């Protein structure tokens, strides 16, 4: 990465402190960082900290004679390989979407001819507001890359989407863009230009407004696979049931609850080159979700009737123009792993099944996995490994199959 240059615009938000950690990561990787600090940003981090970590001067004034004498704002906007906005506040996003140019940061965004990556950070209501979502769509339409935001607890005490992506995730997204087309698809990013759909986590099936049928899936293996595919350059849509995991770098996440919502979200994300169904979808749901909380009564406990949920893997694998080229399913088995997995491959109509024996200690909910890869051609036994390693190996196999 030596010789690569990032122009880092730091907006005004509590997440500005993460821009300092990001600057360190970039400098450690040999990337030059030239910071622009907005007036609001300077309320959260000081020019001195940013300048010391970036090992460069901090730019903040549009009409600064000294800055202009050394480097005009147009030149500044073109002086990097990539412009990164972190945190990208609602205000900065709105200015950039509308082409406003009243200060140095917005003028730079309007004048640049370089790719732009934004890491939004704001209160959840501001993020959800139709104006911000409209601006986001406009920016994406203009070719702006976006990483995050994540879901979680916010400095303002609310909960939801709006937390800036972690510095490591922004760093990964920057690396992807810097390596990107310049290095060519063969330089470690064989899935560039490919879209892969991943389902992960459990589903939750409502019984009434306060009760659910769900399972213990942590989502860890599916999230690791989504992250590994993104690292290889794929555009990844991760359709996720309720889990408490951060979104992997470079992954677009769609949150759902029920199996039916998960099916609808996967279908909305098509077309895809590959689909990897890792989710532990609830096989059944209550036939009726009560609008009001069920109360104890003299009739004793209610009797639940369950109905079968749609099979997302089988639906994606069904032949038709929208079928992904490669459809991969998972099978968690407790006995006769190979035979059950083979039967599942045939029944679901998918191309590969990744099977594991969940009775092995430390696999269910743990860090490691020991899997069999079953294809129509044969079977491979993979050594027991960390779930991240299994994810990386599977992503590499998918890349090989698609290229
Ligand atoms: N799957 C799915 N939709 C469902 C059920 C399962 O997409 N409604 C997917 C899972 O994501 C996984 C694969 O199908 O990739 C295997 O799931 P599993 O529940 O083990 O398969 P079943 O068909 O339910 O078989 P059984 O319960 O008999 O083992």
Word description of this protein:
- The chain folds into 2 domains: 5-183, Flavin prenyltransferase-like (Rossmann fold); 195-402, 3-Layer(aba) Sandwich (Rossmann fold), CATH 3.40.50.10300.
- The chain is globular.
- The chain contains 14 helices and 21 strands.
- The strands form 6 sheets. The protein has an 8-stranded mixed β-sheet with strand order 12-11-8-13-16-17-19-20, sandwiched between helices. The chain has a 5-stranded parallel β-sheet with strand order 2-1-3-4-5, sandwiched between helices.
- Helices cover 35% and strands 24% of the residues.
- α1 runs parallel beside α2, α5 (90-98) crosses α8 and α10 (220-231) packs across α14.
- α13 links the parallel β16 and β17.
- The protein is α/β, with parallel strands linked by helices and 403 residues long.
- The chain has helices at 16-28, 47-54, 65-70, 73-78, 90-98, 104-111, 124-128, 130-141, 167-183, 220-231, 259-269, 312-317, 337-348, 387-402; strands at residues 5-10, 32-37, 82-88, 116-120, 145-146, 150-153, 159-163, 195-200, 205-208, 211-213, 235-240, 251-255, 274-277, 284-286, 306-308, 326-333, 352-357, 368-369, 371-375, 379-381, 385-386.
- The two termini are 26 Å apart.
- 43% of the residues are buried.
- The structure holds cytidine-5'-triphosphate.
- Cytidine-5'-triphosphate binds next to α12 and β16.
């Amino acid at each position: 990465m030596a010789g690569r240059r990032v122009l880092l615009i730091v907006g005004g938000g509590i997440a500005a402190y993460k821009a300092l950690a990001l600057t360190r990561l970039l400098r450690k990787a040999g990337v030059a960082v030239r910071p622009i600090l907005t007036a609001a940003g300077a309320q959260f981090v000081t020019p001195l900290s940013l300048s010391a970590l970036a090992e460069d001067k901090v730019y903040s004034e549009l009409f600064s004679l000294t800055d202009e004498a050394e480097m005009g704002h147009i030149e500044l906007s073109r002086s990097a390989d990539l412009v990164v906005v972190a945190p990208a506040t609602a205000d900065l996003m709105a200015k950039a979407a509308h082409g406003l140019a009243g200060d140095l940061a917005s003028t730079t965004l309007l004048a640049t001819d370089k790719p732009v990556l934004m890491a939004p950070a704001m209160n959840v209501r501001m993020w959800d507001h139709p104006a911000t979502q409209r601006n986001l769509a406009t920016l994406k339409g203009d070719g702006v890359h976006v990483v995050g935001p994540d879901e979680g607890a916010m400095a303002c005490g609310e909960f939801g989407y709006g937390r800036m992506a972690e510095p490591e995730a922004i760093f990964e997204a920057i690396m992807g863009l810097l390596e990107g087309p310049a290095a060519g698809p063969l330089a470690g990013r064989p899935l560039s230009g490919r879209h892969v759909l991943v389902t992960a986590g459990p589903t939750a099936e409502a019984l009434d407004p306060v009760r659910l049928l769900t399972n213990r899936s942590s989502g860890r293996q599916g999230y690791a696979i989504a992250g590994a595919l993104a690292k290889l350059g794929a555009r990844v849509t991760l359709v996720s049931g309720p889990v408490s995991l951060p979104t992997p770098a470079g992954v677009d996440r769609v949150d759902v609850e029920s199996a039916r919502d998960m099916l609808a979200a996967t279908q909305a994300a098509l077309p895809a080159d590959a689909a990897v169904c890792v989710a532990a979808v609830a096989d059944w749901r209550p036939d009726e979700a009560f609008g009001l909380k069920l109360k104890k009564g003299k009739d004793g406990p209610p009797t639940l009737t369950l109905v079968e949920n749609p099979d997302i893997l089988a639906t994606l694998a069904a032949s038709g123009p929208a079928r992904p080229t490669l459809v991969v399913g998972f099978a968690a088995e407790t006995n006769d792993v190979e035979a059950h997995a083979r039967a599942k491959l045939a029944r679901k109509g998918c191309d590969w099944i990744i099977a594991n024996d969940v009775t092995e200690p430390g696999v269910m909910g743990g860090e490691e996995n020991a899997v069999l890869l079953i294809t129509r051609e044969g079977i491979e036994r993979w050594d027991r490994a960390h779930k991240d390693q299994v994810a990386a190996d599977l992503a590499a196999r998918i890349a090989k199959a698609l290229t």
